[in-house]
Prior knowledge:
Elements lengths: L3 H7 L4 H21 L4 E8 L7 H17 L1 H6 L2 E6 L7 H14 L5 E9 L1 H17 L8 H10 L11 E4 L18 E4 L9 H12 L11
Parallel strand pairs: 1-3, 2-3, 4-5
This protein binds 3-methylbut-3-enyl trihydrogen diphosphate (IPE) and magnesium ion.
Amino acid sequence: MDGNGRWAKERHLPRSFGHQRGRRALRRLIESARRAHIPVLTLFAFSSENWIRPQAEIDALMRLFAHALERDIEAIHANGIRVQFIGERDRLPPKITALMRDAEAKTAQNQALRLLIAVSYGGQWDILQAAIGLARTAQNGLVDLNDASQVRVCFEQGLATSDCPPVDLFIRTGGEQRMSNFLLWQSAYAELYFTPCLWPAFSEQHFVTALTWFAERNRRFGGVET
Ligand code: IPE
Ligand code: MG
């Protein structure tokens, strides 16, 4: 979800205003995804690298995040959406992690859409966590390192997205064509969709355009067309 700062700058407004409008775009997208019967939607809200931003911007983002968790969660729950968070929780303020836990507990039984929110998340961090998990399991003699499929299952169990399917469609707004350490392992065969649209302006129509583009892809997963 990139482009909040530029969206605000174009309007001579502070970056934090762009983030607020980004929250609106987020609410809109969650609804569109639910209506489109998307099973899993993962949003990149704050990356491991975003911690190098000025403290004032980080504070504004955390405040906005707390607000969203307090106020938007009712509507999310009422719409049958299950929320989960992925990322390094230790680095987040305790108030935020408490709200995250509440949101996860409240919506745990919901079935309409699984919403994963990546906060303080990095794809390399995720892979390293999974590697540590695999090493520990091997140390305990519970995985045979000569059995490639066992190794893979054990490794993937250690990923933050362990019980989710791999990424099918990867959307990046804001014009940059890079993955910026998002779901690296999970996006091995994702279709990559880049749009110049700045995140606060991303509408249901933009989302439908991306889905239509995705539907036209010929996915071979390394095989040949049949
Ligand atoms: C994305 O918008 C929001 C977060 C990373 C939290 P940016 O803040 O990166 O906006 P630009 O890229 O400066 O326009
Ligand atoms: Mg950016």
